[in-house]
Specification:
The chain is built from ten helices and eleven strands. The chain is of the alpha+beta class. It has two domains: about 140 residues, Aminopeptidase (3-Layer(aba) Sandwich); about 130 residues, Gcn5-related N-acetyltransferase (GNAT) (Aminopeptidase). It is elongated and about 65 Å long.
Length: about 300
């Protein structure tokens, strides 16, 4: 993991500690790196039967290579892409952001190394550019139904936002999530370890809403490099009439906008309609599918691509 050094503007999903947490869930890492004596580039990957994919799980908002900017970084990425031809016949990278140039840069690197590359949108990312506003200004632009819900229900619950890890509050979050409508957590121990580390670093924003002393909604956010990330949220269906999730979301938005003064709020990936009520922009996330034409196993999917192109 030593080659995985995130630079300025890193996200939580770029750090070596994040990849180590994923590896601890049982995924065997393949760290591909290249060095020219002055700079290093790296990709955190995993390999199974000749298919190479990112070292990630469903907690990861994005995946991208770690490389310096400019031509030197481009050469290092191409060198990594060439080296991967000895490890597998297919490399599929997702969800890769496009707004920072990552998707285009990776596609170029693999093409330069002789892979046959297809780039397509695979998911969406809802974000809120704050643009210097305070929460009150932002809230005025929200849908009328959402504002009315908060006005009517805000006093039904008490909210708490803490910036450190509290085992008791986290236990409340886990209990709420387990009883919510959401599927069971794949790796709750990983998420707890992440929250604990983020709390120690001062990046955690942990929120809980209570009704009559009972925890009925909880959310896990982090703040880093002027960006707030909404990682997890859940509420008890039995208390749904209280709209505790809406009230708690408003409390966390208020905190990160007015206190942390973030520039962007990132609601992760997914097409859930409720995200549009809170966010203002949608960014694509890309799948970069690379096939090695020198490998016989690539020929059938390559032929399928060609046929699809002819039909299209």
């Amino acid at each position: 993991m030593q080659a995985l050094t995130a630079g300025a503007g890193a996200t939580p999903f770029d750090r070596a500690e994040w990849f180590a947490l994923i590896a601890d869930t049982g995924i065997t890492p393949l760290i591909a790196a290249a060095d020219d004596g002055e700079s290093t580039a790296a990709m955190a990957l995993t390999e199974d039967g000749g298919r190479i994919t990112p070292l990630r799980n469903w907690y990861s908002f994005t995946w991208r290579a770690l490389a310096p900017e400019g031509a030197a970084g481009d050469r290092l990425l191409a060198a990594i892409a060439r080296s991967l031809k000895t490890r597998g016949w297919r490399v599929t990278l997702e969800p890769v952001p496009g707004e920072d140039g990552s998707a285009g840069r990776l596609a170029q690197a693999f093409r330069a190394a002789g892979w046959r590359v297809r780039v397509e949108e695979s998911d969406t990312n809802h974000v809120l550019p704050v643009r210097g506003r305070r929460f009150a200004e932002y809230w005025e632009s929200r849908p009328g139904q959402l504002r009315t819900t908060l006005k009517r229900k805000a006093k039904k619950v008490e909210t708490q936002v803490i910036t450190y890890f509290d085992a008791g509050v986290w236990d409340e979050y886990e209990a709420i999530y387990a009883a919510s409508w959401k599927p069971a957590e794949d790796h709750p121990a990983m998420l707890r370890a992440f929250a604990k580390a983020e709390g120690a670093a001062g990046r955690l924003r942990l929120g809980v809403a209570r009704a009559g002393g009972v925890a009925v909604a909880a959310q896990c956010w982090t703040v880093e490099n002027s960006i707030a990330y909404i990682h997890k949220l859940a509420h008890l269906e039995s208390y749904k009439p209280l709209s505790a999730g809406t009230t708690l979301s408003a409390a966390l938005f208020t905190h990160v906008i007015d206190i942390d003064r973030v520039e962007l709020i990132d609601f992760g990936t997914g097409h859930q309609s409720y995200k549009a009520d809170w966010m203002e922009e949608v960014r694509p996330r890309y799948r970069i599918d690379c096939l090695n034409p020198a490998q016989m196993r690539s020929w059938a999917p390559l032929a399928k691509r060609m046929l699809a192109g002819l039909r299209g």
